[in-house]
Specification:
CATH topology of the largest domain: BirA Bifunctional Protein, domain 2
Radius of gyration: 29 Å
Strand content: 25-35%
Number of helices: 16
Helix content: 25-40%
Number of strands: 31
Bound molecules: adenosine-5'-triphosphate, magnesium ion
CATH class of the largest domain: Alpha Beta
Number of domains: 3
CATH superfamily of the largest domain: Bira Bifunctional Protein, Domain 2
């Protein structure tokens, strides 16, 4: 392929709305063009990279025994009503009506539709297990579409769904996908780590997200370098070391009121009283399915609302509005505490046995000192309720954890019978008894993966593509396109590389070498070959890998060029 025949537009300036490098580079290197917030056109270069990721995904899914299907993006509302998600998906799902006023959704995912399909196809245990997958566009009305393809309104997802006869059999299907995901991301040149993830409303222990570690990642991940425990902060646990908070174990005198005018936040009260944040009990008032609950955590931690929601086993959980806080505590916002509370109180496990603590006094401008939680409060339950922090103790091995940022590129999930129950997706077992199928679901953000590769692999000059997903693996820079003998060598090289199955782009533009090299670096072709009359007079063509610096450039004779390029790509 010749550069002048493709539609490549490179830009010198970063797009104004791009916050992270990979987004800037995708636009500047001419991989995509913004249509509107969260909507992009994939230009030819971007489409090639997207296709390469798709090909890898498809090959690994096929190898794992999954069967490719494609389901409509337009999904009748009835499917969503059957599972109850027509309501629970909320405004994140795009909805529309046809001319007869029938409701539809634009697929944000496809558990409902696939369950309905499989229910109609499978009737016997002999047909199970089965895993189907599709690579299909998904739509989500994200609150904040941003970071280019990372969080867009329309994105390409590979979604797979497994159906099994039993929970044990479903484990095997889950592991097959888990392992296929590892291979997919490795082949894309990505270091993606499986991370324990929250299972949402479904429960159970079986959910892993695959994360690419990057500062630009939207998710926090607790990682233990020692034992490789890794968990999304939504889920990550910590081990409580003995006597974690001040006052543990010590005998505490009676509770005393302290006047703390206007000191509401932990920071304010901590500097006012000259005590560390860990000496305080932070108390927040929540509305759980509409009823007020107090949640207490150590002052130096934040409440993990996902854990709290699981503990309370409620559908909705939100911070109580000011009026409710005032009603529940009898004080202005900022002075809630567990002593004498009129409503349910739950507390983080680290507070069990804590004495000598400081907490809100349920009176405006008042805090309490010397609080012994067991003696002075009615705590209904102690449980793990905090977001873990850097330096917390690993629950598995006892070493210290670090917090990193991650980009979720994939998610594997054991669903159980949530959807198969709702759709009555049953099969007959060998005794001709009717049983409900057990399901798993598995997603890869294909378009997000393309950008994650760039986020993980770029430098100040541009993208540094791994050969497996680069739009073209090799760029041949013809520095003298007006000279027939140079052009013939460049074109012959193009044919020879194509014959060897290598994607190659010949830069045949009449531009200065500096411009051509800058563009090549920006787009990030893994191997650059320079063909010019000067170089040819000096013994051949130049071969350089994008990931190496200038000093690694090799001059190779024309007849050895294909071998040298192959070696550079390997
Ligand atoms: P996130 O937590 O990032 O919103 P999710 O957990 O809602 O993602 P899943 O429902 O697990 O996403 O979807 C499977 C995969 O699809 C995700 O792992 C991610 O790679 C990708 N994905 C999800 N939402 C988007 C989006 N708005 N834009 C691009 N890719 C997305
Ligand atoms: Mg997910």
């Amino acid at each position: 392929m010749k550069w002048t025949k493709t539609l490549i537009q490179t830009l010198r300036e970063d797009p104004g709305d791009a916050e992270i490098d990979s987004h800037k580079l995708m636009v500047r290197a001419g991989l995509m063009k913004k249509v509107a917030g969260g909507l992009y056109t994939y230009l030819p270069l971007g489409m090639r990279a997207l296709n390469k990721v798709q090909r890898i995904v498809r090959e690994e899914m096929d190898k794992a025994g999954a069967l490719e299907v494609v389901m409509p993006i337009l999904q009748p509302a009835e499917l969503w009503k059957t599972s109850g998600r027509w309501d629970s998906m909320g405004p994140g799902m795009f909805r529309l009506k046809d001319r007869a006023s029938h409701d539809y959704a634009l697929s944000p995912t496809a558990e409902e539709m696939v369950t309905d399909v499989i229910k109609g196809v499978i009737s016997s245990y002999r047909q199970l297990p089965v895993t189907v997958y599709q690579i299909q566009w998904k739509f989500r009305d994200e609150i904040r579409p941003r970071f280019g393809l990372m969080r867009s309104k329309e994105f390409l997802m590979k979604d797979a769904y497994s159906f099994d006869t039993s929970l044990e059999a479903a484990d095997a299907s889950y592991m097959a996908m888990f392992n296929a995901y590892k291979r997919v991301f490795a082949r894309c040149g990505l270091a993606a780590y499986p991370v324990e993830a929250d299972t949402g409303d479904i429960g159970g222990k079986f959910s892993h997200e695959f994360h690419v570690l990057a500062d630009a990642g939207e998710d926090g991940i607790a990682v233990c370098e020692a034992c490789k425990y890794a968990a999304n902060l939504e889920k990550a646990e910590r081990k409580i070391v003995p006597s974690p908070a001040p006052g543990h174990g010590a005998d505490t005198p009676a509770v005393e009121e302290v006047a703390t005018p206007n000191a509401k936040t932990i920071e304010e009260i901590s500097s006012f009283m000259g005590a560390p944040a860990s000496a305080f009990v932070k108390t927040l008032v929540y509305m759980a399915d509409g009823k007020p609950v107090l949640c207490c955590v150590p002052g130096d931690y934040d409440v993990n609302e996902i854990k709290l929601k699981h503990l309370l086993n409620v559908k909705t959980l939100e911070l109580a509005p000011q009026a409710i806080v005032e009603d529940v505590t009898g004080a202005a916002v900022g002075f809630a505490g567990p002593v004498g509370a009129k409503v349910r109180v739950v507390a983080d496990q680290a507070l069990k046995g804590a004495k000598g603590m400081i907490c809100g006094g349920n009176k405006t401008d008042v805090h309490l000192e010397n609080v012994d939680l067991e003696r002075d409060c009615m705590i209904e339950t102690y449980a793990d309720l905090v977001i873990v922090k850097d330096g917390d103790i690993c629950p598995k091995c006892g070493q210290r954890m670090v917090i990193k940022r991650g980009i979720e590129v994939g998610h594997v999930f054991k669903l159980g019978t949530k959807y198969t129950d709702a759709f009555k997706a049953v099969f007959k077992n060998d005794k001709l008894e009717e049983k409900v199928m057990v399901m798993g679901c598995y997603g890869i953000g294909v378009s997000r993966t393309v950008q994650a590769v760039i986020e993980q692999s770029h430098d100040a000059n541009g993208i540094v593509w791994p050969a497996s997903v680069a739009p073209y693996q090799v760029v041949v820079e013809n520095l003298d396109p007006d000279k027939a003998e140079v052009t013939k060598i460049a074109d012959d090289l193009e044919s020879a590389l194509e014959a060897a199955g290598i994607d190659v782009l010949v830069d045949d533009r009449a531009e200065r070498p500096g411009v051509k090299f800058k563009d090549a670096d920006l787009i990030g072709f893994p191997v650059r070959v320079v063909v010019g009359s000067k170089g040819l007079a000096n013994g051949g063509v130049e071969v350089k890998r994008r990931c190496d610096d200038k000093s690694a450039t090799k001059i190779v004779p024309v007849d050895g060029a294909v071998e040298a390029i192959k070696a550079a790509l390997a």
